[in-house]
Structure formats: structure tokens, C-alpha cells
Design brief:
Chain lengths: 268, 184, 360
Amino acid sequence: MEEPFVKTEIRKDENIVYKRTDLLVDRPLSYCPGCGHGVVHRMLMETLEEMDIQDKTIGVSPVGCSVLAYDFMNIDMLGAAHGRAPALATAIKRLWPNKFVFTYQGDGDLAAIGTAETIHACNRGENFTIIFINNGIYGMTGGQMAPTTLPGMRSSTSPYGRDVQTMGHPLKITELIANLPGVYYVTRQAVHTPSHVRKTKKAIRKAFEQQKENKGIAFIEVVSNCNSGWKMTPVQSNKWMEENMFPFYPLGDIKLDGKLIQKSEIAK
Amino acid sequence: MTEEIIIAGFGGQGVLSMGKILAYSGVMQNKEVSWMPSYGPEMRGGTANVTVILSDERISSPILNSFDTAIILNQQSLDKFEKAVKPGGLLIYDPNGITKLPSRKDINIYSIAAADEAGKLGLSKIFNMIVLGGFLKLKPLVQPEFIHKGLEKSLPARHHKLIPDNEKAIEIGKGLIQAVQVLN
Amino acid sequence: MGELRLMKGNEAVAEAAIRAGCDGYFGYPITPQSEVMEYLMAEKPHERTGMVVLQAESETASINMLYGAAGTGKMVMTSSSSPGISLMQEGISYMAGAELPAVIVNVVRGGPGLGTIQPSQADYFQAVKGGGHGDYKLVVLAPASVQEMCDHVKLGFDLAFKYRNPVMILSDGAIGQMMEKVVLFDPIPRRSEEDLIKQNPWAATGKPKSREHIIITSLDLDPAGQERVNLKLQAKYKKIEENEILYETLGCEDAEFIFVAFGLSARICQKSMDLARAKGIKIGLFRPITLFPFPVKAIHDLGKKVKGMLVVEMNAGQMIEDVKLSVGCSIKIEHYGRFGGIIPTPDEVVKALETQIIGG
């Protein structure tokens, strides 16, 4: 006869070296294993916890893979229509100037259907933070071509690779945004190695600190992988990202304290 | 009492503002009023018109087929609205630029040479107030004190210094209007 | 008595919003309603009450700004005219789905497409039957005067918050552009943030330790969950139908025939009624003030007493469908309409009554 299963708590306070922040809801993430979204969620929520602004933060989630971000982030949130998050955030911040407001958007949401909302909110210099996850593909709808899909890159709607002659060029919206006077801080980061994760978290902290000073938009692009959409293993996808995405979308700060610090492609 | 008025002429003659001052004066005298600018396919060729209704009762349609009074400032408007005056109603026109005179015998017709007079006095900007004065002489629907208040409310504060000139123009109009006899 | 003013309908909407304690207006210029934002910008409501006014980059952005602000419990309004309202349908559907309160003013112009800038009532179906995707209803108010343009803003906010539902004020270019005497209601102070949070515990205002986090969304991927959402919405609409119907009758007591008309058309019919009664025709006027909820029972009951109804609309026949559904097939019900920005005159309405209903 088998012994009945007895659940034993093996975690002990004195052994804990890392803990999930209470600002992440205790439920499984809906993202594919290997995806960068979960890491960015954690960095974002840890930042809010460290700044102790959970009760002062209102977030806006997009349509795309992170449509359910509000289920994982233990803060008050609104789910926007596709691309409209910057419009929601504009009104929320205008009417609650003492709150911290952010949008969390993917490339299709921010750089295709929501281009107008993104550019105009940035150009008005609204005082909120935009977290932009760029993985060069529409993940949720099954791997279609995104505005940021690289030339020659395959997707379900560019099965023979993106032909820029007929499908247009990838949009470097972050460089475009950086040139707008209402934008104060623009950086491009990644979350595929511990050191990149740390840099991303620092960038998020910087962006939220700047909200207190009403300096204008802080815009953080995170170049991320989509191993499912790219049809690779997580490890392969990170390698592919380093070799293909980073040359086209180079990491680093683009605008600091309201000043452009590296010559962007579009400024040439 | 309900008075249904159409004021019509060229854009720039002060048609809409004349209507507004009359309407606002009515409001100040606590009458029901409506002011409906030309709003339809007839709004072409630079003509402007406004329907003003002053009443002691709730006003029904702000858009009308026929009027108690037509105040006419150009030939196109005369052609269009002479026939819209109710039998026994009033038609006032400025003869300046009028080549085909009104001909109805079942209405009361008055002429007011406001454009000429305004030109002579150098008051062309308040030509419309001379016309309004003529109308108020025949139909004193609102009292001078409420006209004053109506001017105060209608004109932006920076133009309040012009109120005495406006009131003077109204008085001039009262002396200028004269009955027209339609001959066979 | 409140302050007396001579105002355009569009200006009355703007002034009423400030006085109602509105927190924010988001809009985009379009004829014939641009005076709403022009008036607000000139009035500097930020200095008067703290109200925020923002010119957005599009109607799409305006309505989504409304969605964002309404989701945090703020009292917000937008206005537009037909083509702009079409663009807003996405956001309106989301707001209905997420059960957010807001007032949306449509100063209707003739369509379809770019149409004309002249007045029309051709957006009745769009306003009353949904407009955007999904099974939802707006509360729809139909002002017939500048005074009602003012009063319906306040009523609209009351209903929007009472039912957590978007409210549309369905006006038209004529009522927006014409001036009438208005008695303005006394200003109501804007709610403090504390009162807002207390009165709207559902709103996303920042999560304190003491409660669960709040999510404002219209998404439920589980079909059973989404069916529950729909059932809840339908129950709410039923409650609105039971409690919030508004209409006006004139001369219906002895009437043999009835004009049914809303908004500006009802004003014209009132004049037509005077003309017809002078000819000895016993005619009354039924004016729905709420288009949703529609006064079904009142029209049904009236249908049992009269010989015929003429539904007068500045469209090709939209509200007539609801009138027919309300009455049934027992009497003659005809439509008379003008389109493309043409306003029917009182005379032609009487003629239509004589030919289509009495003689027809």
C-alpha cells in the first residue's frame, strides 16, 4: 500500500535568497517559456515595490501577447484597445497628475495601429512611461509580420521573408520618438542575460523617478525574443536576436535628460 | 405675443449680429427667443439670413416657411422672402442696390435708407443698428433698457465703448424709416 | 432662477459640462460642433474648476482618452459630429463592455460618408442600436432645444454614473448652431479625489494594501465568462428601460392623429400641429426624449387611441421601426423625412400628414 502524499513546506525564511515580489500576482504567466515578457513584468513590479508606489500607480496594458498583463501585475490597471494605450495614459495622467502612469505595449500595438497615439502623446510631452517590447513579430495572433520585422525575416504573413520592396521597411520608431521635443528619456535595452536584466531595471527606475519631475515621456524599448513566433528554441532565439536584431536595433541610451546622445539613423 | 422675423442680406452686412442683438435684448426682457442662422442649401452666393423668434410662450419650430416680419438688405433676399411674409405682415428693406421693388399689396412695406445714412455719418460698421432702429420704431417689442443690456451681452467687452454709437444708430433708424406705397 | 444667457447649443453643452463638475473634455474639431471645444478653451475651465480640456490628435484618441479617464472614475465628456462619431465606435464599444460612465455628444450632420455639414438625424440607428461591435446599448438623450442641450449634459452624467454606462446626447447641426435663451443651472463643484474613490469603488485609482487590484477591461477570453458579462449588461439595460424613460406629449388627449418626432423634428412638428389644428385636424405630438430606453409602452397605448401616426425624421426612416414595433400593426404608421441636411418645413409636414395619413 502506497503512503498518502504529504505536502511538506521545504522553504524556510532563513534560506530565501530570492523572492517573487508581492506586486506580481501569484499565478502562472501565460507567456511561452523562454519569452522575455515575464522578466520585464518582474523588473517593472520590483521597481514599483522598491519605490513603494503600488498605491500611486495606474498601468495600461495593450492588445497583443501582454493583453493580460493586468492579471499578473498586482496594481490597478486598464486594458486598452489595440494601439490606444498612450491615449488612455494621457488622460489618466492629466487627471491624476500625482499618480505614476505607464503603458506596456508591443511592437504591433505601439508602432503599427497605435502610431498616431504614440507619436502624439510623446510629442505633447505627456508625463508617463512607455515600456515597449519589440520582438519583431505579432506573437499573440500567431506570428504575423510586425512593423519591426527585419528585412528578409520570415513570419506567417511574410513566409518567404520580409521583402522591403513590397512590404515596407522595418520602422525604427524609437529613434523617431527620440527626436520629438516632448520626449525626455529614450533607451533601448534587452533582458536575455543577467547583466542586461539589471540594466533594464535601472532604466525602468530612472523613468519612474523622472515622472516625479514632470519632464516628459520616458520611453524604454526592450528588444526581446519570440522563440515561438520565430520558430526556435529559447536559446537559439536569444542567439538569433543578438546576431540579427541588435545590429538593426542597437542597445543603449538614445536620449538622456532631453538630449540626443547618439546619432540616430533617421537623423542622418 | 409671438413675432417671427427673417433678417436677410449679404454676409458682412451684420445680419447675424443684428439678429443676435435683438435676440439677446429679448432674453434680457425675459422673452423666449430663438436665433437660427441660415442653415441649408440656400446658404450660397454670399447671402446670409437668420430667423429670430421672440415670444411670450415656448417657441415651436425655429425654422419657418412664413414670417411676421422680413428685414431685407439685398435683392436676392427680397426675391426670396417677399413671398414668405404673412398677409398683413411687415417687410422692411434698404433700397441700396434694390432694382426690383417689392410689389405685394397685402403686406405693410417700409423702406429705410440705412446704408446711405451710415455712409454719410461714417458709421458704416453699425449700419445694421440703423435698420434695427427702424424695425423697433414699427414694432417696439423690446424696451430701450433691454436693448442696452442686449448690446452689453452681445458685444465683447473690448467693444463696449461702441455701445453709445450703436444706441445712437438705433435712434437714427427710428427717424429714417418710411412707409412705401405700392402703386399699380 | 439660474443665470440667463443667449447661447448656441454647442456653447450650452460646453458651459453645462463645466457647471456639472466635469473633470475632463477630450475632442477633435469637426463641423458643426467645433464650438464646444472652442468655448471650453476660451473659458479656461482649468482656472474656473480645475477641468482639463485637451485637443486630441483624432476622434479615435479622444474616445480612448475618455476610456482611460472614465476607468479611473473621472467625469469626462467628448463631442463630435457624425463622421467623427463613426471613428469613435471602437472606443464606445469598449467603454460599454467595460461599463464606464461618460457623456458623448453627437451633433449630427448628414451622411453617409463625408456627407454634408448641415443638420440631420440619420445617426439614430447608430446611436440607438449599438453602433460599434457587440451587444450593447448607450443611454441616448435627444435634446430639442438649447435649454435641453444644457440640461441633458447634467442628466447624462447622472445616468452615466448611476448605471456605469456611456450616455450619448444625440443632437443635430441646427440645435448645435442655433441660439436660444438658456437658464443655466448653478455650478456643482468637482468631486474631490477622496469622494471620487468613495463613490466609485470600482474605479482604477491606485491599489492600496487594503483591497485587491482593480482591472478595467472589456476582455473575457472564457466564453462562459463573456456570456456572464453579456447577461449582466442585458439585465442593466432592462433596468434602464424600467426606470429612465422620458418623453413629452402635446395635444394627445383629443388627438385622432399623432406626429412622432424627436429633437429638432419635434419642434417643427409642434408648429405643424398648430397649422393643422387651425384646419380642424385633431393632431397631437409625441416626442421621445430618451431614444434608448425607447418609450415603447406609452406609444403602444397611444396607438390604441388614434387612427394614424406620422413619424417625422431628418432621415430615410429609422425611428419609425421602433414606433411600429411599439404599436404593432393595428393602425397606419407612415414616415416623412428629408435628408442630406434639408430640414422639413412645418408646411410640408402638414401636407405629408394630409396625403400620407389622413387622405392616404
